[in-house]
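Field: COMPLEX_INPUT
Field: COMPONENT_COUNT = two
Field: RESIDUE_TOTAL = 256
Field: MODE = joint
Values follow.
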Amino acid sequence: MADPMKIRAVLKGDTVDVRVLMNHPMETGQRKDGGGNLIPLHFIQEITVRLNGKAVIESQISQAVSRNPVFSFRVKGAKAGDKLQISWLDNKGDRNSTEAVIG
Amino acid sequence: MNQSRRKVLQRAGTAGALAAAGVLRPQDLLAAGWNKDAFSAKTLADALKNIGAAGAGDSKDIVIEAPQIAENGAVVPVEVTSNLPDTKSIVVLVEKNPFPLVAKFDFLEGATPFVKVNVKMGESSNVRVLAEAGGKYYSAVKEVKVTIGGCGG
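Field: COMPLEX_OUTPUT
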């Protein structure tokens, strides 16, 4: 199981600024290990951002997103106490989901 | 219970346990929404075609913020805002990467068409951003020079 994500959600008026850090190697399949063998592709493919259970952003990404991906998003119509949930799915079927309460 | 029936049941039980443990994975069922054709495309034209964005017109309403010179191609920050009304999605491509398509973001009700993402760039290239608004794709581009590439190594 991958480490939980770090989510920062800052409310400005009715818009929440979201910054999320995911722990993931995001291997491109082009790098070689110490023995000269290719390290297989391993990357996050899908990301979903939900506000109070409702999907607000759905994303598909490639191995060209940097290692330990960081994203910033903005969601309108949020208020203090709302729940923000971010989840991902990678090409090996691993999943992760983290929830933050907007402060 | 005869012997062969017992074996079949045992095998079924083992397969079930493996599936539950996540060892057996129906790969085809994974990431059904992930646009494999577009992400596997090796040229910009193919990627655009597979997204359904071929022939996208230029737009000044797509704002790309990225460094002119990136010292480290492994982490190039790209920030995109679409000022096109009713923007439904933003697509980020690095034209000269081995697989140009980097990411597609769909903005559902409530989300602002804004995103910041760190991308890998193998070499100096145009960063192309598409925005889908009103059923059409629009395009903008920004050149980023890379000192040290970030894909292989």
